[in-house]
Design a protein that fits this description.
Layout (H helix, E strand, L loop, with lengths): L14 E7 L7 H12 L3 E7 L5 H10 L4 E4 L13 E2 L1 H6 L4 E5 L2 E5 L1 H12 L8 E5 L3 H10 L5 E6 L2 H14 L3 E6 L3 H9 L3 E4 L24 E4 L8 H8 L3 E3 L1 H17 L5 H14 L2
Parallel strand pairs: 1-2, 1-3, 4-6, 7-8, 7-10, 8-9, 10-11, 11-12
Antiparallel strand pairs: 3-5, 5-6
Length: 294
Amino acid sequence: MADLFPSMTINGSSKVLGIFGDPVEHTLSPKMQNAIIQDLGLNYVYVPFQVTELNLEKATQAIRSLNIRGVNITIPHKVSIMQFLDDVDETALKIGSVNTIKNENNKLIGRNTDGEGCLQAIEDTGMNLNNKNAIILGAGGAAKAIAFYLAQKINKITIINRSPTKMQTLVNNLRNYYDIQINGILFDQKNELKKALDEADLLINTTSVGMSPNIEKCPIEIEFLHPELFVNDIVYNPLHTQLLQNADQIGCKTLSGVEMLVNQGAIGFEWWTGKKPNKKLMKKIVLQHLLNHK
């Protein structure tokens, strides 16, 4: 940390932020968050905490006892930590997971900034999501978070997944809360898949297909894409997945996963500190790391 932020000082008045996960060595959050802490001249420090499932309750209690101001939550704790919190925001309750906790006068409040971050990244490109028709590839945690926020703005969501059980569970959960058209299709239902994509405005890949080291893989055939489709892949390593390369090739507007990573981190930081971070700086830090660790 001293190499990255030589002017950062930590003293008895420093406020602590952090991230709980297992593993946590890979996270880029400390690089992003400490960069903006230094940029804003705040007396904070952001620390990664290796927390096992066995120690999760004690670690959550420690947020209070150590007066940690806020933490991000990553795999595998986004669901299990909810039972130890004092309050969870309404959308995060619907999603069933949190990725950000704020310590507000010893009261631990949870929310999920993944879906917010994805929507913000898309809207930052100038796309108006109102009344759009979206397809989400995958039905895991990220798909849930994104779908529950998307459903507040758009007309139709189609969940495409390999497992019929997970797909139908997410479809049913969404239908319980939102009065829009919500459908599910399996990846091997090619005719239905092609028709759904022909009618879609937005495609978001939340699966790990195409992630390093399997960078040659693509979750959807190139012939199913069309130039009017906006394609967002939340995978950020590699920066330009095979899906995004294929979409670029046929003229789609595209967005990489770095934007969601930055936006979800920025939302949490502003919630904790009341300060707007420099998202361009956050993105620069992430890109430097990814390009230097190819």
